[in-house]
UniProtKB/TrEMBL annotation:
PANTHER family: EAG-LIKE K[+] CHANNEL, ISOFORM A (PTHR10217:SF637), VOLTAGE AND LIGAND GATED POTASSIUM CHANNEL (PTHR10217). Residues 180-194 have a biased composition (Polar residues). GO terms for cellular component: plasma membrane. This is Cyclic nucleotide-binding domain-containing protein. GO terms for molecular function: voltage-gated potassium channel activity. Residues 12-76 form the Cyclic nucleotide-binding domain. Residues 154-214 are annotated as: Disordered. One of its GO terms (biological process) is regulation of membrane potential.
Amino acid sequence: MHLHREILQLPIFESASQGCLKLLSLHIKANFCAPGEYLIHKGDALSYIYYICNGSMEVMQNNMVVAILGKGDLVGCDISIHLLHGNQGNSGNTGSQDTIVKSSGDVKALTYCDLKSIHMSGLVEVLRLYPEYQQEFANDIQHDLTYNLREGYEAEEETENNGPCLALPSISEDDENQSDAETSSASPMNTALQKSPAHNVGSSPRHAKLVHSRNRSLVALRERVERQRSVQTASQPPTVEQANSFEGLNLEVAKEKEKGRMSVERLDNQVTTLHNDVAALSVEVRKHWAG
C-alpha cells in the first residue's frame, strides 16, 4: 500500500476500509509519459482512471485544447455504466468485463509526467465486495474527476451515424471578443472546468478547501503552456521588420550597458576616494594617540 500511498490518500478513498484499500492497491500501477506522448487517443477504450503525480497534460477534441491537467488531477471516466452492467451481469451472463467505454478526446503530455492508474475492472470487482462504499465512490468520482473522457463520445457517435450536423459560422478575430461573452457558457473548456472538483463545490462540500489551490494551479499551467508555444513561435526565422526591431533593441541594450559601465566606474572612483580618506583619517588618529 505504501507504494501507492499518494493516490490512496485522496479524499475519495478516505472512507474506505483498510481491507478495501489493500485490495485496491493490487490494481494500481505506475505510468510515465514524455513530452508530446499520447496517454489516450480519441476512441480508445477507457480501461483506467489516471492520477497525475507530477507534470502537466492537455485534453484535445477536434484539434482544440479543452482542458489542462496538472499535479493532483484525475482523468478517466465514472463507473456508473460499469456498475450498471455489473449488476445486470449478476442476473445474466454479461459482466463488467464486456463493458467498453470509449474516450471522447486525446490526452497528451506537455511535460514529463508521472502517473498512477487504477484498472477499471479491478476497481469494480473490489467495490462489489464493499457495497456500503460502492455507492459513495460512484457518486464522488463524478465530482472528483477533473475531466470525464466518457462524456461527449456517445453524442458525437450518434451525430455521425444520423448524418452531418449544420456547420457553425466562422468567427473572425474582430468579432471574437464580442462573441466570447455569448459562447463562453457553451465552450468545451468551460464545460470541462465546470465538471472539475474545483467547480462542483456545491454538490460536494468536502472539496471546498481545494478550490483556491486548484484554480491557481490551472492558471499557472495555462501560462506555462502559452510560454512554451511562444518560445516555439519565436524560434521561426525573423522577418525584415522583426530584424530591424531587434537591431534597435540591441542598440538600446548597448546604450544601457554603457551607462551602467560608466555608473560603475564613477562608483568605483568614489569608493577609492573614500578608502583613501579613511586611511588618512586613520593615520591622523594614530598620530594623535601617539602624541
